[in-house]
Amino acid sequence: MSDEPGIYPARPRRAPAPPPAVFVHDLNAQQSAAVAHGDGPLLIAAGAGTGKTRTLVHRLAHLIRQGVPADRVLLLTFTRRAAQEMLMRAERLAGADGRRVHGGTFHGTAHRLLRRFGAAAGLSPDFTILDQGDSEDLLQLSRAQLGYADTKRRFPKKATLQWVYSRHVNTDVPVEQILRDELPRFAELAPDFQRLFADYTERKASRNLVDYDDLLLFWATLLESAPVIADRITGLYDHILVDEYQDTNLLQARILRGMCRSHRNLTVVGDDAQSIYGFRGASFRNIIEFPQDFPGTRVIALEQNYRSTQPILDVANLVMSRAAQRFTKVLWTTREGGERPWLVTAEDEQSQTRFVVDRLLELHEDEGIPLREIAVLIRAGYMSADLEIELTNRRIPFRKWGGLKFLEAAHVKDVLAFLRVLENPRDEVSWYRVLLLLPGIGDVTARAAIDSLLAAAWEADAFSRFEPPPRARAAHRALVALLDELRRRPSAGVAAGQASTDIARVRALYDDILRERYDRAEPRLADLDQLQTIAAGYPDRGTFLSAIALEPPSATQDLAGGGDEENDALVISTVHSAKGKEWDAVFVIWAADGWFPMARSIDDDEELEEERRLMYVALTRARRHLAVVHPLHAYATRRGADYSLDQLSRFIDPGVRALMERVTLSADGSLTPTEEIVPVTSTVDLRAMLRRRFTSSD
DNA sequence: TTTTGAAGTCTCTCC
DNA sequence: GACTTCAAAA
Which residues pair with A662 in a beta bridge? Predict the structure, then answer.
């Protein structure tokens, strides 16, 4: 069943060498071959649940045992968490040396290298990292300064500006073309975008700021244009291993090419069918073209799935087989039996929620599955609102992954802005944010204050000499006193942690402002307590600020305190955040057209394909129990939506349905076999076809 | 100039 | 239906 013609150049043409005896019990033939691969580029095309992490960990351990110094191995992963998990496992296999492997995300590694080598290329080593929101704010400042705020002409909002900028940097596609392809209504504004981005770039440079995209871009640039530094950097590592390669973008591919100038020991692992970060500029073409990029690549495919039962794999495989571009792998397992995945038709959202809660309690109480082994997967963060309320009412503990981030909350960013001003007095974004918090200071006064700082060359106490308008005098004095106090802190390295102490002092001023601004202050104050607790875990303020920008604590579970294993809780996760994870039982809810796939992706073939891969990722998270749920009558009308919603996701087509146990939820909560054919959105979208007639360029 | 209230815009995924 | 932007009042 694995004889599908593939786009990968080859199954290994020659039979892999027999694996070393030590691996035989643990790994299958393909995995062993990957682990024991010698030097030179290696592409491991690993389907979902095929032991990809395990293989990578064993390879890591193998390299160390072969005598490669652990600290000369670089492991690049998608999340910080993934890196740590792998290093821990490698440590168990290879001993304490495993811990010395350098592991982290592309961004985290870029950060580390830039702090070390950036200065030699004119980058001040104490730069501040802008997260996406900060980057938007700074673009907004640029925009206002350049006068685009006043024009009556419609101008894109800051989030759009940031998106275009980021897309440009990460994909190398010219701004003009991005606008033409993705935002045609702004196409004629290309020169304005260019002007704005030039100013933004200048502003970042003079304010000592570095955004996410810069981290990667500077790394790539050092490798490509600064031979001496490039030699130092590439000389650090003998082997590079990359996880989730399907989610890298062109810029990251450039970095890898640069890192492999002096050797070609690059191992990448990925699954083109799980490429779900196209919106961030990732392209699964990276993985498909890897063998061309690195001639002599050995390709090893992992297709034996150790995670799911065959009925679950059958459904997932069939969903994926409908992809416009045929993918390569067909997963199989030796795990016989298992129930067919359920397809549950619910009346509406409440009914959907009731099914999920009833069924998960059944699994938990009757079958003894721990709550943490059960997950509810959603396409987007807000889709679990109703479920969360119900779970809270029924006192069922849950943890939510993904979605709105703690650190994106305005009040958290406010407090951090104070610390950032201290850390980098040139941080214009944070100054602006802090100033606007003060009563009596608005946009104009804030700008005037920043201009005065600029004029004083950002000297530390320049702000105390700023003359505020009378109504802001008290606030100004309070802020000056606070900053003074924080600068004259007894001594760095207090046991409690500098950042935590700083936050406590900032809150003496800020908590009142917060109470004034928000109706319900308590939960926000609790957030700040948590922030303080997190901060206590870092040695100093600078480390804390960089760390939280690069590895935000994923939702509340990292913050809740206490071991994850202790408190058993259901997991609610976006599909994106669920990547790489697995559970005994998985519910995929909101499997309705317009929701999953999301409405705005339906008109665009590439985006629709990404939604399909997303569905594939969701389905393949399940080990034994899988239920796909869709509400029939949710919100029939949605502004701007001219296709029918409220119908079963188009990915669950008749063939897929035939492989599932179809049940309908009746009003009393009982399940009956689904009788009638569930209506499915036609693949023909009449309005979209008509629209294309007038918009297509050919 | 700041603040407040009303109209208007677009709805996500994440380092 | 939330968040941003615009317009008027303090």
Answer: A343
**Length reported for chain A:** 698
Let me know if A416 is exposed, middle or buried by CB neighbors in 10 A (0-12, 13-18, 19+).
Answer: buried
**Average pLDDT, rounded, for chain A:** 85
Strands A266-270 and A42-46: parallel
Closest nucleotide to A143, Cα to C1': C5
CA A687 to C1' C8 (Å) is: 42
Question: A590 CA to C1 C1', in Å?
Answer: 19
Residue A402's pLDDT band, with cuts at 50, 70 and 90, is low
Q: Which of A2-6, A490-494, A686-690 has the lowest mean pLDDT?
A: A2-6
How far is A94 from A108, CA to CA, in rounded Å?
24
Q: Which residues pair with A77 in a beta bridge?
A: A105
This prediction has a pTM of: 0.87
A61 touches A93 (CB < 8 A)? yes
- State the amino acid at position A617 in one-letter form: V
HEC string of A324-373 equals: CCCCCCCCECCCCCCCCCEEEEECCHHHHHHHHHHHHHHHHHCCCCCHHH
Angstrom distance (rounded) from CA A413 to CA A134: 9
- Mark the nucleotides of strand C covered by protein, meaning any atom under 7 Å from a CB: 1, 4-6
How would you classify residue A478: left for phi > 0, otherwise alpha for psi between -120 and 50, otherwise beta? alpha
DSSP A209: E
Which bases of chain B are under 7 A from a protein CB atom? 1-3, 10-15
**Coil, helix or strand for A628?**
strand
| Mean pLDDT for the stretch of residues A547-575 | 67
The SS3 call for residue A157 is coil
Q: What one-character DSSP code corresponds to residue A8? A: S
How is residue A628 written in tokens?
Answer: 């796909």
Over residues A551-557, mean pLDDT:
56
Of A612, A622, A607, the residue nearest A660 (C-alpha): A622
Q: Which of A127, A107, A76 has the alpha carbon at shortest distance from A216?
A: A107
Q: Quick check: helix, strand or coil at residue A201? A: helix
Distance (Å, rounded) from C-alpha A185 to C-alpha A511?
43
CA atoms within 13 A on the CB side of A65: 17
Which residues of the protein are close to the nucleic strand B, CB under 7 angstroms?
Answer: A 78-79, 105-108, 131-132, 157, 212, 276-277, 279-280, 379-382, 401-404, 439-446, 469, 471-472, 550, 552, 554, 574, 576-577, 598, 600-601, 638-640
What is the C-alpha separation between A505 and A522, in angstroms, rounded? Answer: 19
- Whole-number Cα distances in Å, A448 to A148, A158, A161, A173, A378: 19, 22, 25, 37, 46
Give the CB-side neighbour count of residue A258, counting CA atoms within 13 A.
25
Cα–Cα distance measured from residue A546 to residue A309, given in angstroms and rounded to the nearest whole number? 42
CA A411 to chain centre: 22
The neighbour count for residue A672, using CB atoms within 10 Å, is 11
pLDDT in tens, A184-207: 888 888 888 898 899 999 999 999
Cα distance between the two ends of chain A = 40
Residues whose CB is less than 8 angstroms from the CB of residue A122 and which lie 6 or more positions away in sequence, other chains included: none
- Alpha carbon distances (Å) from A443 to A144, A434, A436, A439: 11, 11, 7, 12
Name the closest nucleotide to A132, judged by C1' and CA. Answer: B15
> What is the spatial distance between Cα A596 and Cα A380, in angstroms, rounded to a whole number?
9
By the 8 A CB rule, do A413 and A552 touch? no
